Protein 1
Amino acid sequence: MTPKYRLIENYRGSKNYVNKYFQFISVIFPSISFSEWYEKGFWTDKYIPVSLLNDDRIVSSASIALMDIIINDNKYKAAQIGAVGTLPEYRNQGLSRQLMEHILDRYKEKVDFFFLYANDMVLNFYPKFGLRNVKENIFISESIPSREKSGVRKLNITKSEDYSLLLDLLQNRKPITKIFGAENYSFITMWHILNLYRENIFYLEEVNAIFVKKESGDTLHILEIFFTELFELEKALPKIIESDSIKQIKFYFPPDQLNYQFQKRVEEDTGLFILGNIDLVNKHFRFPTTAIT
């Protein structure tokens, strides 16, 4: 007998379905959690799951995040598709295709374009819906400033003062890039911090900025910076380097807002797919790390 499926969406207000979603996520993405993010109030009406149920169990799901996007200093409305998956025993039945078709049809008149980040296993899936693969860039500096005794401080978000500082900066931050960037995405940033970067957020008081960074071997990775006023990043770098062994800095954002010097720009296939008429031709960009769903 062919299973019967029922589509539900935008069920943030239903504790019953929210718990079913958490159960589904724990199977599909076992290393991540949505529960703390939800309990702290960051699941807003901009994050919309679209799910298929069989016997009142979520068996396949996708989500959209409604976003304010900046491209070449112009503003757009976009839907970022994410968290696409199907329980193993329900795969190869076209359920993800059904969800994709529903999302694209339902929101095509509400947004200017769609985009998503795909993993290596499904790179051939999304072009079937008209999405095109677009390469991004990483920016590398091999000119390392002398490390200074830092004023940078690692934040502990279990402490109320550090948590409040983080939330305040997120609420008032400026875009880190306007080539392909975003605004008003704190609800996504907090998912990243709670799941991935809790140990990687550092505050530099003199520029009132939080750096999402990590050092690995001889490389400093600066994933993103939250700031309320533009500042001279080159002058701040010596204060955030912790190890004397750093020989290169990788910036995961272009230098159009916080100017810095780099020696190499490397094109990467990050799994970015876009559907819509937007101009990123010959643009050297990287979408903000903590804006990705």
Protein 2
Amino acid sequence: MLRIKGVATRNKKADRKASEGILAVQVSADGRASTLLELNCETDFVAKNENFGFLDQAYHADKSRKVNDFLNDQVLKIGENLKVSRVLKFEATGVGRVSAYVHTGAKIAVLLELGLKTQAAAANPEVAELARQLAMQVVANNARFVRRDEVSADVVAKEREIAAEFTKSEADKAIDEAKRIVEDYKGQLVEQKAANDAEAIAELEKRIAVGEKQIVAAEGRKKGQLANMEKIISGRVDKFFAESCLLEQAYFRDPDQKIQDLIAAAKTKVGEEVSIVRFTRFQVGETAAE
């Protein structure tokens, strides 16, 4: 009877938006598999509740019941819509090491896989720590790709378009701002001429002359930028790669070091190839509108 009541209660609340919640991970003892799960509720108050933090584990106590049965019980207890919105499992492809990191507050989490040549290297504690640090890096700097050759042509084309529009827009803004200042001075000049204030008139005429030179200079800079547009766009796209590709990012613990430098150092320590195979970053609520 209680189970039926739980199902009925959950059905009533099913249409209520559940975009708060937590992320939970489980990594296998051998470091070859990891699962990431997002459990959602309606309010952050419930998400921060200590009991809610263990909902993704407690159902294991009774093997005869499904996760859905457990959620129905919790909806009845908590009084909010609860749902598992997504689950992802990483299993090492070939010889490798899978790591997971859940950031403080359980709102952001990452799964990451390292590729190696031998099982001994995969079991190396330094490799395990490297994988953990890299997962933390993805949380901190929100990488989207491992390396630039993973970025699709469509994404690159879009970034080039954004870079071109931004460059033109910034140039036009500088010209418009210089013109606005000159027009403002000219308005003040009319007022001062009406007041017959010779000193103010002289000062404003000087400012207008300087402002008009600044307009010419801004227009000249725009022409120069347009003439070098390809170089400017390439620079901005390279910046996009440096921010979006994990291997090209600056290490969050040491900005003078790139992630690719970290990988190179790991190869030397382990004595074999170490590579980042893949990663996934989840943030609570990012799929709520889907």
Protein 3
Amino acid sequence: FQTYLQEQGRSPHTIRNYLSDLRQFAAWFEQTNGEALTPQAVTPTDLREYRQHMLTVQRLSASTINRRLASLAVYLAWGKEKGLIEHNPAVDVRGVRQQSIAPRWLSKRDQGRLERAAERAVTAAHTPAARRRAVRDLALVRLMLNTGLRVGEVCALRMDDVELNERSGSVTVRAGKGDKSRIVPLNLRARRALRRWLEIRPSVDEPSLFVGQGGESLTPSAVRRRIADLARQAGVEATPHTLRHTFGKRLVDSGVSLEKVAALMGHANLNTTRLYVAPSAHDLERAVSVLE
């Protein structure tokens, strides 16, 4: 099954999630039915009972339940493709209905706080190494806020993926989600931040755009730690994905069409982009507060 996912071009992160979801189901299946999990042994009733178990016993969120069911559907599709089963029982099982709540993004005020924290780190740096790191971190923040790139896409950028001109610029994402490539334009703020980083980036053999103090390519976990550190300094809650959502929300609020937002963010399904026009949790809290 893992080889099947790899051949489909699924990302390592997605494969880990699929396998984790499958292990969870396998443990429940064996405990419930007294036999090991195989595609041939799974029935629609098993899947419905597992859905109910997640809903009432584990009390998982609708999104988690639906993700696990989707993982099982892929596993059973693999079984059908291999000729192990004639029918995928997952197609007979519905997910849990949920209200569309927009993803978390930064308010304009919190975005300003985060950017100021990154700028202050540059000003406060007293050694060349500290200054390089601070300038790099500011470039990371500005790039993600103004392109909406996923953290994995940011870390995969190479030097020759960046084009900077006086009045324009772009980054080429060569292996986005689903191995799809796209070109994302750079606005003035992003170009200035990247140009500043490139001026002091260490001269190393590593072709990655963003490198660490030792010249090694930055990993997604390292970027998450840097954003978390700046967010703590700024007194806001932020992750790389929050910055991506902030980019999408700002575009929608500025009147950019969903089709253009989807193209910029690399969304394969326009329904994903429509989440940015759904009310956020904060929007709903603000709505009920008018009754106080």
Protein 4
Amino acid sequence: YEQPITIGDLTVTGFHSDHDEPGVMALLVDDGSRRYAHSGDVRLNGPHAERVHAWAKRFNQEKLSLFMLEGTSFSFDTAAPVEDQDHPSIPLTEMSLQKQFQTVLAESPTLVVINPYIRNYERLAGFQASAHTAGRQLVWEPDDAAVLTTMTDQKPDAILGQTISLTDIARDPQHYVLQNSFDHLERLTDMPITTYIHSNGEPLGDYDPRFAQLKDWLEAHHIPLQFMNASGHASREDLITLAKEVNPRTIVPWHSFHPEREAEALDAQTNAAVVLPERDLYYDFDELNEEE
């Protein structure tokens, strides 16, 4: 991070940021006379918000000619990104999510199943630590176990098919949490399950056809579905806050099903000019933002 690299006539610097996929960066681009920036996927309510405020301060000092700002939260009819818009759950932070998970474990008499986002290895580690707090072991599928082992300082409690079987789990379900991916739903058939927790795992939301399949399968097998989400994307209010912190001349919304909603909010609440690019058009930065 913060090690400039040269790409043609441009100097590009990446800044450590915060998202539900650790390792994400915001980018600063310098062409020798002007500076541009790209927010990357970003949130302000995560465990590393200080990183975001740090690069926002740096971008402000650079007096950006243009800032590309993500707008995922403007994609949905709800105020914050949710998986099921027909039945929106209360968005959590990474910290409050683990507290809620511990409460669910304490109140569950049998097996708890989780479907987490495999790329969020910090949350994977958090789930296992919370399971230990509740006196349970977390059983992982091999792929998630490999991510946990490689990317964190934790070792998997148990790996399904290698160190433990479904029969072992079914014998003492109150002692375990089982991580289960969508491709292996059939493993849950006839298991004694108190609840199935969907925590930003795949399918990611109701815009994915597999999401309806997941809900239908769980309902058919009488397995209660619970959402426990912490978005990797800033709320609408936090995006406006971030835009004001950076204070660029021009903002281009990106990463949204409805960038026009973000553009309207930015136009009303910031001093920046807002540009909604059109497909197949090329833009000249001098025309977008002439030097004063």
